[in-house]
Protein: Cation-transporting ATPase
Organism: Branchiostoma belcheri
Amino acid sequence: MATREEQFHYINKGQEDELECHGFKRDKVKTSVTAVFALCTLGLLFLVFYWRPEWFVWAQFTSCAPGEADVVLLRTMDDYRTWSKERVNIETKGSMHHQISLLETRCDGDTHQLQDLPTLSVDSSPDKPIIQGGGQSDDQSSRYFIHHCLKYVWNAEKQTFEKVRGLDSGMPCSLFYTLRQGLSSPDQENRRSLYGDNAITVEVKPYIKLLFYQVLNPFYIFQLFSVCLWMSDEYYYYASAIIIMSLGSIGISLYTIRKQSEMLHQMVESHNTMLVKVCRDGEVCSEVTSTDLVPGDVLVIPANGMLLPCDAALITGNCIVNESMLTGESVPVTKTPVPPQSSDLYSPEVHQRHTLFCGTQVIQTRYYGGEKVKAVVVRTGFSTAKGELVRSILFPKPLNFKLLTAAYRFVSVLVGVAMIGFTFTVAWMALDGESVGEIFLEALDLITICVPPALPSALTIGIIYAQRRLKKQGIFCISPERINICGLLDMVCFDKTGTLTEDGLDLWAVVPTKNNSFAPAIQDVSQLPLGPFLTAMATTHSLTVIGGNLSGDPLDLKMFQATKWELEEPGSEESTKFDMLVPTVVRPPQTMVLLHSPDKREHPYEVGILRQFPFSSSLQRMSVMTRTLGSDHMVVYTKGAPEMIIQLCKPHTIPADFYEVLMTYTESGFRVIALACRPLENKVRFLQAQRMERNEVETDLTFLGLMVMQNALKPETTPIIHQLREANIRTVMVTGDNILTAVSVARECRMVCPGQQVVEVTALPPTDSTPPNITYTVSTKHMEPQEEIKGGEIAVQMQEDTVDVDDSGDQFHFAVSGKSFAIIRKYFPHVLPKLAVGGTVFARMSPDQKTQLLEVYQDLGHYVGMCGDGANDCGALKRAHAGISLSELEASVASPFTSKKNDIQCVLTLIREGRCALVTSFGVFKFMALYSMIQFMSVLILYGVFANLGDTQYLYQDLVIITTIAFVMSRNSAYPKLVRQRPPTSLLRPPILFSVIVQIAIQLAFQLGAFYFLLAQPWFVPWEDYRLCNDGSMNVTVNTTDINATVGPTLKPCTVDYEDESDQGVWTYESATMFGIATFQYATLAFVFSKGKPFRQPVHTNWLYMLDLIILTALNVWLLLYPTEPVAYFMELSQFPDFTFRLWLLVGAAANFVISWLTEVLLADNNALWKWLTSSYHKHHKKKYQILREELLYDKDYGLPVGVIRPQGTGKEINSNVGHVGGTRSGSIDESDDMENSTYL
């Protein structure tokens, strides 16, 4: 028997998808007992098991070691701790060569060992673990299970299940070149059995199957129970109406799910089955189906390109690739081979410029000498980048939305109330001697009254209306349940380029160097002399000619077009002048002659680009190796971030005023690019150049100058940021651009207001002599005085409603670079939350860092929105509570919302519509809850006197009143102004609970008042007396001499002849009274709970709703005061003999309306009152970010536990020895005109 520690282990430990894995073996005794209980419950037990899979396993299986399990229970390690079960399969094969190197490649030893590694078998060296069955001594079988489309195989040595990985884990880059001859056929077959088909299969389930899964939802099961109960009670009409409404709701859901499945299926099907050429058994190339590909296969990329069916590492040639599916960026990207001599471990994320990703389109290929362009398959199926994207859509993370949690709690309270009524009904009717069948029918009916079966349909209708309104405004939604969450957003993160600013960059000027000093800025590039600077501009790019047009990165395109040079692709005779084929040739527009010694021959000035080191976001630069026609040496040109380029340049070539000039441009909002070059030695030839490492090439550069690009703000940006700020919604910039440029744009769009400080946070990693440290630089440079703010603009309020700071000039904003963010996250994780709370600008952030930042904000309690143009924002868009993509490309599939308009106006629209939808959902939920409680109380009062409402009366209330109101109540549009006040986040907030409880009490009071007022009437004879009289138990006479009104079809003592037994207790004064008062209460609460300002348009703008309320009120008045005899008969109404009594009931209904409305307006919706009442609670129950924000605002040292103030005047690098280190304090203070005197703790 396994010990408790052995019975579970962790899978994917330390990763985002970490799981707790428990093993179970089937127990025959438990299974038999469970089967008996399932038969006794008519299969309902298995329905419960469907909802709770862990119960299914616990009921039929016994805990065991995972290696012996028949079934595994998996539990997520996030806040939700959700369970799932998977069956363990056993695969048997005569000769299995499944090697753990495919799961975790560990490469040690010499070249021969590396060469043999991809074909390691179970007979390989003992230091390599083997996949085999748990507890088995042979290697003839392996245990595995499939979870979320990924395969997990049992590793007997490590005693754990491991995710099957390809060659993307622990594989040295140099090893790929040992695989260039391809796999042998046996090895390919073995790998095929391990990895399975290379396909991303998205099943498009038939409607009947989707319907089956949909109706198993607990709400729909309860609806089914209610319908069956009503049918047995001959309540056919409303049961039919509920069936129609539910079918409509289910139909819409099925259509949405099916459409999404079809869209995903179409997105992946194009590359699931296609013919590809691979090299196997040496250099033999053959065509195979793409589903047969396995990691290690060598894929041949045709010259005219292809759609990639897998992830592959490029080993020969170059590829021009369109990666819009993954990044949203339609600009072609150049892919180059994996570094052949590099010992770095390969990672698709780190080496993405050398990786061809599944689903991307190779437009064209290039190779020197006409050889094949080859790539080694590293990942297949759902393990690919596209597979991960599809999996994230198929298995999204659960939403932490308080409305859903509170809704279930609210329903559970209603169930509790229903059980009280159930118990009362059973006891009361049992004492009266009713039959068992009748008792349970009436008691169960009470449960269906208390828990409204139409609730899911009513809430769904509201979401549908919101989705339609968004669609009309150009915002498409693939995750409708997130619309309500948009109403809770209190922070929005924005990408900069293409989101806040225009997509394109314009070349504003160039600043070349002369004699190691900056020359004056030149705005007309044509005035530049022919030389290294101009040649660098013409060559440091990845442009290509597609369809006769230049295509590539917009920055590269603007830069090259400014030179007016010509670009020629390989293939023409002219390109052979360089002794061998080269990818690209560039030349000036006019024929220019350059004389070369020693032969003094004349050559046209043409530059061939021999090799390209693509732009890397982690390195922040790109380089090219070139040779000028007729020259005897090669030249390296490099372009990149100025901060990075100067680290690679010879110090004496850098102008002394470099930092001052750089800051002049960056603080003015320009994007600055640095250029540098390096002539290579004459002895470096073409083949040697192809083998050189990047770090060998990009060193000892000569600084050439700066290129200044202008990126203008979109005209809508600043007004929208201002509106968000006024609405108390925090805005943050998360960009890959330079930090100074980002700060300038933040000031320009008023994320950072005039008079406010910017604190630049710089973190340095540990060195041999110093530990890691953080330094803070406070700058007031370029700050406008606060009094210059225009009347329509207000300073950013960095505090929440609970914090009030009078001197906004003391406010500040942190600016953090991606490099510092990574260091702080690693070495100072306790500082990161405060930096996030005070941070406004996060620059040079990688895609992963953007996602990590959003996770920090979510952990602090923020509801975070993310708006990006799709390029490098996919992860953050998926992670945010509400991701808004401004790209309509395939990358928008990863985002819940996509805007057709390419500006951030959609953020305002989405928040307004989200608030409207959220408040509408609360109103509908409250109305449906009160509707059920009103009917529940009415019926319970009638049950007390052995009376009931008639079927027609139920039908009128449920179908005519409730259903029509539910359909039109949600039609109010969003209020056009985004206000500072925020909607409630939960149904359990005190104002909402107060509203519900007090309104229930008010309705109950008026129902009891009407009932006892009826009892006080001189003409009234209780129904109990009639009932006993008709049973022959007593004889009653009624004095009617005092009745002045004409008696219509009223009940007479001992003379009622019921047509049907079910009519008993319906034709009563008690039933008519409770029916009359309840119908008015429904209309009253429908009006009271329809909120208008500040989140929705006033209720009168919803003309269909107002028309419905007017018609319903008129019908109610008519049925109460004077219905015609046929109508009274049809409605099963007993008419009151005294017309004055009817008028008093109408007066009571009017008083009910006034009191309910005043209670809601003056008390429930009184924000000032509730703020005062709950101030003590909120003072001691604040969110994390509120606590940290107060610390930052009231702490003169910004509340930071580390650091030292440094001046920002020279812009020079901060001395890393001056910062706070570890847990000690630094007392260093510098004084400057550009900083305030203070000491950081």
